[in-house]
Design a protein that fits this description.
Layout (H helix, E strand, L loop, with lengths): L2 E8 L5 E8 L4 E7 L2 H11 L8 H27 L3
Antiparallel strand pairs: 1-2, 2-3
């Protein structure tokens, strides 16, 4: 028992993939809503801590930090790929 990832779709957004972290001990979903199972799994790996130990607002803040880091990494990868060899 512990943290699981539940995947579904956001019906009101054109059925885009969505996922949440789920605490199977307390039967509660944790924020935020991710853009799919892979993002949720990447976030858990990046977080390096049990998300149940964090308050919901801190978990949301950590997600924002995670997304900023992901955007920086994506920009660096794109810049590297666009450089002529």
């Amino acid at each position: 028992m512990g943290i699981r990832i539940i995947e579904g779709v956001k019906v009101n957004e054109g059925e885009k993939p969505a996922a949440v972290l789920y605490d199977s001990v307390t039967n509660r979903a944790l924020p935020p809503i991710f853009r799919g199972e892979e993002e949720a799994d990447d976030f858990l790996a990046w977080l390096g801590d049990d998300p149940r130990r964090l308050a919901p607002d801190l978990l949301e803040s950590k997600y924002v930090e995670f997304m900023r880091n992901a955007d920086i990494l994506d920009a660096a990868i794109k810049a590297t790929r666009s450089k002529p060899t």
